[in-house]
Amino acid sequence: KQEVTQIPAALSVPEGENLVLNCSFTDSAIYNLQWFRQDPGKGLTSLLLIQSSQREQTSGRLNASLDKSSGRSTLYIAASQPGDSATYLCAVRPSNAGGTSYGKLTFGQGTILTVHP
Amino acid sequence: EAQVTQNPRYLITVTGKKLTVTCSQNMNHEYMSWYRQDPGLGLRQIYYSMNVEVTDKGDVPEGYKVSRKEKRNFPLILESPSPNQTSLYFCASSMYFRPQKTEAFFGQGTRLTVV
Fold first, then answer.
1. Which of B10, B43, B51 to substitute to test the interface with A, most A CBs within 10 Å?
2. Which of A91, A110, B49, B64 could form a disulfide with A87 if both were Cys (CB 3.0 to 4.6 A apart)?
3. Is the CB of A36 less than 8 angstroms away from the CB of B94?
4. What is the pLDDT of residues B10-48, one digit of tens each?
5. What's the confidence (pLDDT) of residue B102?
6. Which of B37, B95, B100 to substitute to test the interface with A, most A CBs within 10 Å?
7. Are A114 and A21 in contact, with CB atoms under 8 Å apart?
8. How many alpha carbons fall within 13 Å on the CB side of residue B13?
C-alpha cells in the first residue's frame, strides 16, 4: 500500500529565506507527483506536476524535484514571502494498481508553512 | 477559466436530513472524484467516476452516494447524515487516458457540519 510522508510537519521561517519541503513515498511505481497549496479552510491549488519520467519542474520561485527510484520529492521555495504561508501537500498517482486505480491520488499529511515578516 | 465548482461552500445540517453537494467541471474531464479531509487523517477518497454512468467506491464510501448522469456533474449525496460525516469535502477532476500528464483540479471545498 502506498504511503506518503511529508517532513517537516510544520515550518516557520523569516521572510526572504530559501526553504525546502520534503515528500517521500514508499512505492516508486507512480505516473506522476503533484504539489498543492492549501490556504486555511480553502481548496487545493495545483502548484507543480512532475511526470515520472521527469526530474524537476519549475514555476516562478518554485522548483520541484523527483527521484522516483528513492521515493523522494522536494519542493524548493526561493525568497519566501508572507503570502507563501499555507499548507503544502504532495500527492502521488499510482501506476501499478491496474484498472481504474491510477485515478486516485495518495496524499501526504502536509507541511504547514509560516513565513513571518 | 478551467475550474471545478462546488456548492454550497458551507453547510450546517441536522442528523438524518438528506443533502446533496453539487460539483461541476468545465474541462471535459472523464475522471471525477470526491475526497474528505479530516485532521490527522488527511485526504481520503470517497467515490470516483471514470465517465458517465460509471462510478465506484473509494476508501471511505459508507454513508455516501454519487451519480454521474452528465459528464460535467458529479453530485455527492448524503441520504442520512450523521455527526461523523462532519468534514471538509473536495471534488476533483482530471483527464483519464493520459496518466503521466494527468493533473488533478480541485474545487474550493464544502465545509459540512452535521449536528
1. B43
2. A110
3. no
4. 999 999 999 999 999 999 999 999 999 999 898 999 999
5. 84
6. B100
7. no
8. 23
CA distance B38 to B85: 10
Dist. CA A43–CA A41, nearest whole Å: 7
State how far the Cα of A76 lies from the Cα of B58, in Å rounded to an integer: 32
Q: Which residue has the higher pLDDT, A97 or B35?
A: B35
**Nearest residue of chain A to residue B94 (CA atoms):** A103
CB A102 within 8 A of CB A12: no
Rounded (5°) CA angle A70-B38-A19: 45
Strand, coil or helix: what is A102? helix
Distances (CA, A) of A64 to A14, A48, A61, B115: 21, 7, 10, 42
Residue reference for cell 508553512: A113
Tell me which of A9 and A98 has the higher pLDDT. A9
Closest to B21 (Cα-Cα) out of B64, B72, B84: B64
**What is the phi/psi pair of residue A10, to 5°?**
-145, 150
* Strand runs labelled E in chain A: 4-7, 10-14, 19-25, 30-38, 44-51, 56-59, 62-67, 72-77, 86-94, 106-107, 111-116
